[in-house]
Specification:
alpha+beta; Beta-galactosidase, Chain A, domain 5; 10-stranded antiparallel beta sheet; 8-stranded parallel barrel
């Protein structure tokens, strides 16, 4: 019995009764994870177990202990009103109560369906589960069908619920704002409610994230301990809620944010919730991250199996000051450094209203011939001449009131009925109403026209710089105004599907005022996201650390910036900026013409060395080693190949005090029995490190680590207080 208790991670309450023997045990399994449900026809399905994979013998003997709690898989509102519900509706006759009992269980390949119905009303709910064996991921979602003669109103419609046995359970989640995204918060779960919501309307990851981790045995540790990871795969408004009441469980709910979004489900229609992705690891927070990264690269992220190009983006170099000569110069510069792609950012478009600042022209996607007399054709010619690919910036979901588009179609914008439009960036920006099929056609056409005219375009930077500030649709009828948020993102997804069907190979970045669209609802159609408009290396360490909990390096655009930084005005060493950027998808914001020859050479060397480690960083397994949030003056992490033959180790100082003690960092993820030769990348020291070119066993590196010098020993005029290291480890 003691062995059983050690094995079980989460258990449900099931009072043993005569009906228990009649129940069917539904097991959804991956390589290392088991989800066990108790399913009996005519009764509510119950959670039994979610955690480390169980053997057939353990499954045979699995019983739920007699612990006070509620463990319905998908609790409905009305017959136990004090309890939190995953589903609530107003039936056609006004009844607010719903009951759900099992009708059937079906399996088809890796998908399990539990069919439920209301015994009184013709409402059916299918609980869906999809298992990804090798990635240890389980997706769950619901399909709610209305068989009543008239419309029913959905007021609560979560994607799923998971009971978590109380104990020393800690929650890891993320907060932030523009230029300060994905900041990590770790806190114990206490009685009451913890609610994480988003109401932005267009973007959903600036202020919060739809992803959380639960550490089951105390504050989360990076590479040890039992951890559950959960991510709602949705691009719109969400609500994550943990309720801790007088029972022995925390109850975790995740789904679309229902605030002002009640949904009128017509007769014969089915409402499908977003998927909730769940995983479990006994290898700590980083173990959960590795599961999400593998699943994401293989099944979710667009082109997750292809290396990302090293690029130069024009924004911080010239802002809106786009011109033919400047773009050609930047292409020559990035080509000379070994870069592979140039991206022209905002400021290239507008006819009647040329784009000179952020207060005009969105929606008028025609080349400004005063800035670019030879048009996109000339830029593509120059890109080919310089041996680099070409990319372009657009913001197709938005318009300005100062634009030809708005003059022609004022009815296309999101606007509250009978109200004046609330304006955003520049005092003129508005959001186009993607619930409208005509607007969907227009937004698709922005990409389609560019790619049809200029098929050589290799990369699209897709921005979204405004929230939905006023609730209302000029397209939806007055009875269905509450559908706006949901229909916007249905329209957005339809547009993305059309683009990917016609242009499957183009690389598309999700930029949304920086990191506003870092979510698994968007990424099936996008190759990467812009982590933040803030490119300051020190702050990026914190933001990229949090982002890495759920998203792989291949999706995280991380660029070398100018100094002082354009957002925070901090001055850091170029090597430090390079070393931080090399932990994601490497790119550049810095304007090469403003760099010294020595700085250009350092970047050239870094790009060449990044190409060596690119497969390790973009496809390797992450091991976070020392968190900047621990406030020990350091941050450190590494990526290791599946074969454990190569690894990249990062070490960044996060504070700068004289004679400050810094801990030695132990590595992780290596083969204890192999020898690894150490090589420093981006070296600027006058002498090699003491361990340069030497070999150490994986056991030594993981049990002891290397004594990294506290500062870079450079020539006097190059000394600085922001030391960093990148080490390549190769098995012999």
């Amino acid at each position: 019995m003691m062995m059983m208790r050690k094995t079980l991670i989460i258990t449900t309450l099931l009072c043993l009764s005569a009906s228990w023997a009649k129940a069917e045990q539904v097991v959804i399994e991956t390589k290392n994870v088991s989800l066990v449900l108790d399913v009996e026809k005519g009764a509510q399905p119950k959670y039994v177990y979610f955690g480390a994979r169980l053997s057939s013998l353990e499954l045979q003997h699995l019983q739920a202990p007699e612990v006070f709690g509620r463990t319905e898989v998908y609790p409905a509102y009305g017959l136990n009103t004090p309890a939190e519900a995953a589903l609530a509706m107003r039936h056609a006759d006004g009844n607010l109560s719903t009951a759900l009992v099992v009708e059937d269980v079906q399996r088809s390949g890796d998908i399990t369906t539990i069919q439920m119905k209301d015994p009184v009303y013709p409402i059916t709910v299918n609980l869906k589960y999809k298992a990804y064996r090798e990635e240890d991921m389980i997706e769950t979602w619901t399909e709610i069908a209305n068989g009543e003669k008239q419309t029913v109103t959905l007021t609560t419609f979560a994607s799923g619920m998971l009971p978590i046995r109380r104990g020393d359970v800690w929650l890891s989640h993320f907060y932030g704002s523009w230029a300060n995204e994905a900041r990590l918060v770790e806190e114990p779960l206490t009685p009451g409610q913890k609610v994480i919501v988003n109401k932005d309307g267009t973007r959903n990851s600036h202020t919060d994230h739809a992803e959380v981790m639960f550490s089951l045995d105390g504050k989360g540790q990076e590479n040890s301990g039992q951890v559950i990871g959960a991510a709602l795969c949705y691009s719109g408004n969400y609500r994550l809620k943990v309720t801790t009441d007088d029972t022995e469980y925390h109850y975790f709910f995740a789904g679309i944010n229902e605030d002002n979004s009640e949904y009128h489900l017509k007769k014969g229609e089915t409402f499908v919730t977003p998927k909730l992705a769940l995983t479990f690891s006994q290898q700590g927070l980083s173990g959960v991250s590795r599961n999400f990264h593998k699943w994401g690269r293989k099944y979710m992220l667009a082109h997750g199996d292809k290396e990302r190009k090293i690029l130069l983006n024009s924004w911080e170099g010239v802002y809106f000051d786009i011109n033919q000569q400047g773009m050609d110069q930047m292409m020559r510069d990035i080509a000379s450094m070994g870069g592979e792609l140039f991206v022209m950012d905002d400021g290239w478009f507008g006819d009647k209203y040329p784009r000179k600042t952020d207060n005009s022209s969105l929606g008028d996607w025609v080349v400004d011939k005063n800035k670019l007399p030879e048009g996109i054709e000339g830029l593509l010619r120059d890109a080919k001449k310089n041996g680099v690919k070409f990319g372009i910036w657009i913001e197709p979901e938005m318009a300005n009131t100062t634009s030809e588009l708005y003059e022609q179609h004022p009815d296309w914008i999101v606007k509250a009925p009978k109200r004046e439009a609330v304006l955003g960036r520049g005092g003129t920006q508005v959001v186009l109403d993607l619930s409208n099929p005509k607007v969907q056609d227009f937004v698709f056409g922005v990409v389609d026209n560019l790619m049809t005219k200029y098929p050589e375009i290799d990369y699209i930077k897709w921005d979204a710089n405004m929230a939905i500030m006023n609730h209302g649709s000029q397209y939806l009828d007055m009875a269905n105004q509450s559908h706006l948020y949901i229909e916007y993102h249905r329209g957005f997804e339809k547009v993305c599907q059309r683009i990917r069907a016609k242009y499957p190979d183009v690389t598309i970045q999700a930029c949304a005022s920086g990191g506003g669209r870092a979510n698994w609802g968007v990424l099936p159609y996008f190759d990467e996201f812009w982590v933040s408009d803030n490119t300051d290396a020190l702050q990026r360490i914190y933001m990229q650390w949090g982002t890495s909990y759920f998203f792989p390096a291949i999706a995280m655009a991380s660029h070398i910036s100018a100094t002082p930084n354009h957002t925070v005005f901090r001055t850091t060493a170029l090597k430090y900026r390079i070393d931080v950027a090399m932990s994601g998808r490497l790119g550049m914001e810095i304007q090469p013409k403003n760099m010294t020859d020595a700085e250009k050479e350092l970047c050239r060397k870094a790009i060449a060395e990044y190409k060596q480690i690119r497969p390790i960083v973009q496809f390797g397994n992450i091991y976070r080693l020392l968190s900047p949030y621990e406030k020990k003056g350091l941050a450190s992490m590494m990526y290791v190949t599946d074969q454990q033959d190569k690894a990249v180790f990062y070490w960044w100082k996060t504070e700068s005090f004289q004679n400050e003690h810094l801990p030695r960092v132990k590595m992780a993820g290596l083969d204890a029995n192999r020898m690894y030769k150490v090589k420093e990348l981006n070296r600027i020291d006058v002498k090699p490190l003491s361990f340069e070119g030497k070999s150490f066993s994986g056991a030594y590196l993981m049990n002891h680590g290397l004594d990294v010098p506290y500062r870079n020993e450079t020539e006097w005029h190059l000394k600085n207080d922001w030391s960093s290291r990148v080490l390549l480890l190769e098995a012999e």
